Amino acid sequence: MNTDEVWQAIDTQRIRVADLLEKLTDDEWRTPSLCGGWTVRDVAAHLTMQQTGLGGAFRMAARSPGGMKRVIHRSACLRAATPTEQMITEIRGMVGSRKHNAGVTYRETLIDILVHGLDIAIPLDRPLETPADAAAVAADRVWSVVLPFFGYPFFPRKRLRGLRLTASDVDWAVGEGAPVDGPMDAILLLLTGRLAILPRLSGEGAYALRARLPSAQEP
User: Fold this and answer.
1) Fold for the domain defined by 3-130
2) pTM of the predicted protein model
């Protein structure tokens, strides 16, 4: 996918996530997401914060010292006090814009909307279409990062060493070793530390994953 196609995928997924959020009950908004310690509401709030400039990032860090993961979580929890309708409107309002958070690329924006959309949908057993080609681009980015920047939490090459990950619905594979097979969206969630997706994966390597991966889900 080229840059224009990635931004189109981001826009499409933002609309799908906003449509999903509009259907949720109050109880569903309070449901734990796939992110450990994050509710559905916290994740939705985080998705409203995908165009934070450098000044805003510094203000977030000043309010929540203690490392980037804490800054991100605390900032989302604070934003979660925003009225539901306003959060949905803010997510829709980013459609068509190519602005992204300071210090990252548009690929991180794609990762956020794809992964966090599923963080919301899966525990609620709500359908959310996730295109395999877009998930493959996001997975390529997650797999490629080997040095930390802005608290980047995903380093699957280390966590998944000795495994061969292969998508069943798009031409995508990485790693060497025991096979782990499944749909591209499930592999993307695996790469970003979501253990809840294990039942959707098959192969010899899948059986060893639960013992090898950390129990905490990444933000």
Assistant:
1) Four Helix Bundle (Hemerythrin (Met), subunit A) (1.20.120)
2) 0.87
